[in-house]
Structures are given as structure tokens and as C-alpha cells.
Amino acid sequence: MSNQNTLILTVQTDKNLSKLQKQFNSHVKKINELKEKLVKDAQQLELIVSRIQTDIVPLEYKHIDKIVEMVYLFDKHYDDKFFKKKEKEKIAHFILSKSEELIEQAGKDELKVMFDKYAGQTYDEIAEETETESIDLMKQMMKDMFDIELDEEEEKVNDPDFLHDIFEKKLEEKEAFEQASQKEKKKTAKQLEKEEKLKEEAQNINKAARSIYTDLVKAYHPDREPDEAERERKTEIMKQITQAYEKNDLFELLRLKISLQSIDINAWKMADEQLKYYNKLLKEQLIELEREHWELYNKANGPSGNLFQRFGLDNDTTKTRIKREMTRIKNNIKSIENDINMLRMKENMRAFLKTYNMFDDDDFF
């Protein structure tokens, strides 16, 4: 928290702070908290992903292999004359549903042969038909929802990724054309005045950050420093200064200026106009940090849900939940192994098939 405290404006009573000073303090506090949270959450995500790869993924592979073993057991029973027609229909249904699931979700392409045997049509043929329907639907959506027309060559495209690229490009062109059309409309004097004011304000905001950067560069540029140790120190400082400036990190530039030059921020006289520009820059930085935080959470999304929600935001919670997930998968593996041993006997398979519902979505394994 020391980084934040060096930037907080303080007086004897909070009432003596101006509105701009209070805004400055609020932005500094929020930015500092969000920066710390970003670092902490990024490290936590890295830990979660690492633990998943080392502890959970191997168990998931073993779990998948056991389901594959179950599919082959059902296939063996299908060819046995012991089972009646209705029972064989259920066996075939189980094999088809599990094979399709394992091919699509676990990449078990070796089960395509098994799928083809019971589907009456190959897996690849069905996938091609589904893709064609999806492409046709995408083309129709482009026309109906976005009013985007395809030329003769584009209509022939049957690659969904390539079609998506065409869609993105045409949508960008359409939006650019609409924006250009809007600009062509004659602007009122009030609109022009507002645009000019915003432009001038943006220049002043950039100038506020640049002035801090320039002051720091003058003080810490290492080129003319004769002492080797001091030159190395200034080189490292310049890296921090340049990195902060390139990222538009006013918070870090201010922190560097105050900490490096031993400035008491309360004694550092900032005019209201200067403080106003700092506040705007800090607010923009806060919005950018919030976007980065959202992107981090989005990065944590996976097929089984958000990793932060599943495994927690602190080490102890992550450790407990990883262990719990490992136990759950191990129990599932043991359960499938027991089922395989039991279903090897035809009589037990028959008993199972009596309870098996082809129209039920329950996942037995």
C-alpha cells in the first residue's frame, strides 16, 4: 500500500480537500487496488492452470480411457446372440452417444470406426452435412440480420472460418461507410465548437503526462552520467519511466516522480487545471485497468466454467478445491472400473439395459 500512500493528498481535516483533490485521491486509491488485484489474480490463474495440468488432466485422461473401455465392452456384447433385438438397440444407442461425445469432446477419433458401424452413415459424412447446414445458416443470417450481400465467389465458400473472416471484413466496411456518411453531414457551429474543445482538452491531457515524463527523463537519463554504478541505476529507472509512459500509466509516472525526487505531494502545488487533467488521465487509466481485469476473467473461462469460480481466488481455496476435484474424478474412475467388471457378465448387462432409457439425458458414466 506504500505506492498508494505516497500519492494521497492529505490535510488536517477531510473537509479542506477540494472536489478535484478528492477525485484525485479516489482515482489513486482505486487504481492502486486494481493494480494489486490484477497481479494477484493473474498469479492465481497461473497457479490454477498449472495445478490442473499436473494434477487433474492426467486423471481426466484416465477417466476418458475407462469410458472408451466401456464402449468396447458394449460393442462386444452387441455381437452376442444372448441379447434380444430391443436390448441390442439400447446397446447401439449407448455406443453411438458415447462415441460421438468422446470424438467431439475428447478428440478420440479412433472411435469413428465404432460410430460408423452403428450409425448407418459415417461420422465424417454427418459432420460435413452439419457444417454445410451451419454455413448456409450463417450466409442467410448475414443477409437477413446485417444486410450483407455476398458476391458469386463468396457464395461458393464452404469453409466456416473463411466465411467468418469475410463477414468480419464486410461488417467493418459497412460500419466504416456508415461513419463516413455521418461525417459528410454538415455539422452545426455548436458541434464544431464541441469537437474543437475536446481536441484541445485531449492535447492538454497528453501534455500533462508528457511534462512529468520529460522532467523525469531530464533527471535520470544515463547517457551523460560519468559514474558507472549510477549510470546502471539510472538505466533501470529509465526503463521504468519509459514503460510507464508508453502504457499511459500516469499513476506510475506520478509515483516515480514523487518517490525518486522525494517530493511531499501535499507540498507539491498543483493548479486546479493541472489536477483536472490528471484526474481525466487517471479515470481513463482506471477504465483500462477494469478492461484488463475483465479480460483476465474472460481468459479464465473454460468448457467447465470459470476457473476462478471453480477453484477460488486464494491459494488455500484453490488447494482445497483441486484436491476435491481430484477425489471426485478418482471416485468416478473407480465407479466405472466396478461397472466394467460387473457388466462383463451378460446377465448383469441385461439387468442394466432394463433400466437404460435411450431418451434420458442422464450421464451414467
Describe the fold and architecture.
The protein is mostly helical and 365 residues long. The chain has a domain at 202-288. The chain is 77% helix and 1% strand. A two-stranded antiparallel ribbon has the order 1-2. Strand 1 (301-302) and strand 2 (305-306) form a beta hairpin. Helix 2 runs antiparallel to helix 3, helix 2 packs parallel to helix 11 and helix 8 (189-220) runs antiparallel to helix 9. The relative contact order is 0.12. GO terms for molecular function: kinase activity. InterPro entries: J_dom_sf.
SSE arrangement:
Layout: H1 2-5, H2 19-78, H3 85-106, H4 112-119, H5 123-146, H6 152-155, H7 160-184, H8 189-220, H9 228-246, H10 250-260, H11 272-299, E1 301-302, E2 305-306, H12 307-311, H13 315-343, H14 346-355
Antiparallel strand pairs: 1-2
Report on the biggest sheet: 2 strands, antiparallel
* Overall average residue pLDDT: 83
- The span between the termini is 50 Å
Low-confidence stretches: 1-5
Query: Could you give the order of strands across the largest sheet?
Result: 1-2
Cα-based radius of gyration, to the nearest Å: 32 Å
* SSE pattern, N- to C-terminal: HHHHHHHHHHHEEHHH
Determine the strand fraction and express it as a percent band.
under 5%
Outline type:
elongated
Structural class: mainly alpha
GO molecular function: kinase activity
Organism: Arcicella rosea
InterPro entries: J_dom_sf
Keywords: Coiled coil, Kinase, Transferase
